[in-house]
Write a structure and sequence with these properties.
The chain is an alpha+beta fold. It contains 4 helices and 6 strands, in the order αββαββααββ.
């Protein structure tokens, strides 16, 4: 599959970079996403206000993903949940191996975070029409499948900044 996204100058975005952009575009709850080349994993970062305990989420996410993977007949090799407090903001990071990840799982992770921390979750409000949401979900699924080929050969981070998605080599 060829890349489906283009830079403004018409150059195609590599599929792995397109995956990061699509996840941020589709899920405004995710503040940044980091591709960890050495571990072939994605780190989804969420920003929360006035949270000092995530123990409930640290239990729910692995349990839910374990059940999800049993239904999907897949096996996870990495599922880490970390947080650090920076004054009033809690930075929550969920790390998952790319090899067993699917678009549905990304949606599940976001929903679990939203359910647990709804009023504290910092969300970059972006309006996407329903057809664009469905397109982004399909694109995420396709790009997750192609990233298995190792299309990103370095660490890359995508972040939100004033309604835009910026991508950097890390």
């Amino acid at each position: 599959m060829s890349a489906l996204l283009q830079f403004k100058d018409g150059v195609y975005v590599p599929d792995g970079v397109g995956l990061l952009i699509s996840i941020l575009w589709r899920y405004p709850e995710v503040s940044s996403i980091y591709y960890w080349h050495e571990q072939h994993a994605l780190k989804l970062t969420f920003m929360l206000l006035d949270i000092d305990d995530i123990s409930s989420l640290q239990q729910k996410v692995p349990e839910a993903l374990s059940i999800f993977h049993k239904f999907e007949n897949r096996k996870m090799s990495r599922c880490n949940i970390e947080f650090r407090q920076e004054e009033r903001v809690c930075v929550l990071t969920i790390t998952r191996d790319v090899d067993s990840m699917t678009q549905s799982e990304v949606g599940l992770i976001v929903e679990l975070v939203k359910q647990e921390f709804n009023s504290s979750l910092i969300i970059d409000q972006v309006y996407l029409p329903e057809d664009e949401i469905l397109y982004q979900e399909e694109l995420i699924g396709q790009l997750l499948a192609t990233i298995l080929s190792g299309d990103i050969d370095k660490n890359v981070v995508a972040v939100r900044a004033e309604g835009k998605v910026l991508v950097y080599k890390a």
